[in-house]
C-alpha cells in the first residue's frame, strides 16, 4: 500500500520519469530475489 501511494503521489506531481525509474528498480529487485531463491 505504501508503494502504491508513493506511485500515486509521483503521478499526481507529474513525476512520470521518477515513477518509471522506481518501477524499473522494483522489477530488478524482484528478478534478483527470484534468482536467489532458485540457487
From TrEMBL:
Tell me the superkingdom of the source: Archaea
The molecule here is called Tryptophan synthase subunit alpha
Native organism: Methanothrix soehngenii
Q: What is the lineage of its organism?
A: Archaea, Methanobacteriati, Methanobacteriota, Stenosarchaea group, Methanomicrobia
Amino acid at each position: 500500500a505504501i508503494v502504491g501511494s508513493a506511485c500515486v503521489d509521483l503521478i499526481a506531481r507529474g513525476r512520470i520519469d521518477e515513477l518509471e525509474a522506481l518501477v524499473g528498480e522494483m522489477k530488478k529487485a524482484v528478478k534478483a530475489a527470484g534468482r536467489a531463491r532458485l540457487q
